[in-house]
Every structure is written in structure tokens, then in C-alpha cells.
């Protein structure tokens, strides 16, 4: 099956993050199209994904699926070997329940705490409606972890569609410093440290799209996820590698890390690596030689 996926800004589009994780974390190959939100090219991109009006949307064999829950069920049906839902029937039923609730609820949290993977506001003060949503979400996480999560760090032990759907919510807890239990805190940390999530966030930093209205006038703290290695772009080589660790093309752009110079085929490859070097296996193979 050949899949195409339409997504938007990686820093701000929580729905796009869900759609991308459905492919990335389960190892399903996909070709991505991306356009910046609120720009003419966004609507131009979706011309290829009619009747979808929003992202994410996926396409295969001229069939378009444009709702994240519909996408998840379709991919699970078409790729049964990936075990995208828990194998155990009771866990699977619970996973579908909490996923559906995440998909349809938590409107106060969504509205007041938009996804923003560039910021951390330690002094954010949530409204009572937001705190009600937060408490309910923590309750769901604790229930899943206590009853089904003993084999791993995720809601049902192994990573599943349920975790895909809660990944943007976990990022909101990080950005807005929302109250959580120890169990919820460990679950949030699992998301922030997940290599796929780190790659998505690093690509958003490399895109460097700043959407008006998403940043708040609060003091900022450091991102609460794993601290990245201190890489920085530099203007020239020579580099230790002659070919880009991702494309294999000759290097033209460079970064420095620990006094060593590494090369990439374009500024985006360089900048996504500089944002979080350890998120990228291709880079770490040459760094750790």
C-alpha cells in the first residue's frame, strides 16, 4: 500500500502530530506533503486530498481518509501485523474507549492550551474548566496504567493508537506546566523522551514557523523534555562526513558538536539535527564512530 499524508506546522498542529505518529511509530512508509497553516498553500495542498478540509488527511489508491480516528482504524485494519491496538481484548476495548474520549472531549483544555512545542510556561494559571479536563485526563491515564500498563511505559504497556492520540495532550502538560500525579508525570516523560516525538519537535524547530497568537505573555522556562546535545550551525567545513546522513547526498551545510564538524545536504537537515541530535539515528551513527 502506498500512502500519502497531508500535514501542517509541526510546532502547533496537534492533529498533524497524531496523523504523523500513526505512520512513524508503527513503521508504516508514507510520503508527506506539508503546508503552513493559515496560508494559501495550505488550501492548495488540500486540493489533492478532497473532500478533506483540514489536516491530517491521508490518501491511498485514490481513497482519502481525513479524520484521525478514521485514519487510525483504517491503518490498523490494513496493517494487522503492526498491532496498533492492544492484543488483549479487554485492553483493546479500554484503549478504544479512552481514544474516543480524547478525540471528542477536553474542549476547555484544547481551547486554552493550544499545542506549542517551542515554549514552556512554568507560571501558567489554568481556569477551573481546564483543571476539570486535566483531572479527568490524569484519571484516565492512571486507570490505564494501573490495569493494563505493566509491560512498558505506555497506557497499555506497549505503544498503541491510544498513545498517539494522547501525545499532543502530554505536550500541553509540558508547555503549560499543568498539575499531574506521579503516574501521569511518568507517562508525560515517556512522550517527551520518545524518539519519534523528539524528531517531530526538532523538525518544527528547524521549520522556524512562528504563528501569531500562539505564544503567551508569561515567563518562560526550558523545555522539560530531555536536554539536547549542544550542537550549533556553522558556516563552513570541512566535515568528518562527506555525505548527508539522511539523503546520502554531498554535504553543503554544517554544524559543530563537541568541537567536531558534521555536514548535511541542506539547511533543514542541519537544523533539525542541531535542534536535537540524539533524536536522529542516522546522525548518531556518525557522531558515535
In words, what does this structure look like?
The protein is of the alpha+beta class and 289 residues long. It folds into 3 domains: 4-82, Glutaredoxin; 89-198, Glutathione S-transferase Yfyf (Class Pi), Chain A, domain 2 (Up-down Bundle); 232-287, no CATH class. 45% of the residues lie in helices and 10% in strands. It has 11 helices and 7 strands. It has helices at residues 14-24, 40-46, 68-78, 89-104, 107-112, 128-148, 161-176, 182-193, 195-207, 267-275, 281-287, and strands at 4-7, 31-34, 57-60, 63-65, 232-234, 253-257, 260-264. The strands form 2 sheets. The protein has a 4-stranded mixed β-sheet, sandwiched between helices. A 3-stranded antiparallel β-sheet has the order 5-6-7, with helices on one face. Strand 3 (57-60) and strand 4 (63-65) form a beta hairpin. Helix 4 packs across helix 7 (161-176). The protein is globular, with a radius of gyration of 19 Å. The mean pLDDT is 97. InterPro entries: Glutathione-S-Trfase_C_sf, Glutathione_S-Trfase_N, Thioredoxin-like_sf.
SSE blueprint:
Elements: E1 4-7, H1 14-24, E2 31-34, H2 40-46, E3 57-60, E4 63-65, H3 68-78, H4 89-104, H5 107-112, H6 128-148, H7 161-176, H8 182-193, H9 195-207, E5 232-234, E6 253-257, E7 260-264, H10 267-275, H11 281-287
Parallel strand pairs: 1-2
Antiparallel strand pairs: 1-3, 3-4, 5-6, 6-7
Helix pairs in contact: 1-3, 1-7, 4-6, 4-7, 7-8, 9-10
Amino acid at each position: 500500500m502506498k500512502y500519502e499524508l497531508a500535514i501542517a506546522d509541526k510546532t502547533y498542529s496537534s492533529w498533524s502530530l497524531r496523523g504523523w505518529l500513526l505512520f512513524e511509530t508503527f513503521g508504516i512508509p508514507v510520503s508527506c506533503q506539508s503546508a503552513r497553516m493559515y496560508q494559501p498553500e495550505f488550501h492548495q495542498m488540500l486540493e489533492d486530498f478532497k473532500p478533506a478540509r483540514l489536516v491530517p488527511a491521508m490518501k491511498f489508491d485514490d481513497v482519502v481518509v481525513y479524520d484521525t480516528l478514521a485514519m487510525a482504524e483504517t491503518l490498523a485494519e490494513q496493517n494487522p501485523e503492526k498491532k496498533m491496538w492492544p492484543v488483549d481484548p479487554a485492553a483493546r476495548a479500554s484503549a478504544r474507549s479512552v481514544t474516543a474520549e480524547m478525540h471528542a472531549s477536553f474542549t476547555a483544555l484544547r481551547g486554552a492550551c493550544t499545542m506549542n512545542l517551542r515554549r514552556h510556561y512554568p507560571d501558567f494559571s489554568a481556569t477551573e474548566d481546564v483543571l476539570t479536563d486535566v483531572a479527568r485526563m490524569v484519571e484516565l491515564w492512571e486507570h490505564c496504567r494501573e490495569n493494563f500498563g505493566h509491560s512498558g511505559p505506555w497506557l497499555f504497556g506497549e505503544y498503541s493508537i491510544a498513545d498517539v492520540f494522547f501525545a499532543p495532550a502530554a505536550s500541553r502538560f509540558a508547555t503549560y506546566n499543568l498539575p499531574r500525579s506521579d503516574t501521569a508525570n511518568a507517562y508525560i516523560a515517556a512522550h517527551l523522551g520518545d524518539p519519534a516525538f523528539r524528531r517531530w519537535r526538532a523538525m518544527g524547530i528547524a521549520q522556524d514557523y512562528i504563528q501569531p497568537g500562539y505564544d503567551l505573555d508569561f515567563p518562560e522556562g526550558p523545555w522539560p523534555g530531555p536536554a539536547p546535545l549542544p550542537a550549533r550551525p556553522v558556516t563552513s567545513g570541512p566535515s568528518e562526513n562527506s555525505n548527508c546522513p539522511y539523503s546520502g547526498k554531498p554535504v553543503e551545510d554544517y554544524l559543530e558538536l563537541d568541537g567536531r564538524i558534521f555536514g548535511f545536504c541542506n539547511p533543514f537537515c542541519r537544523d533539525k539535527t542541531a535542534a536535537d541530535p540524539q533524536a536522529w539515528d542516522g546522525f548518531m551513527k556518525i557522531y558515535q564512530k
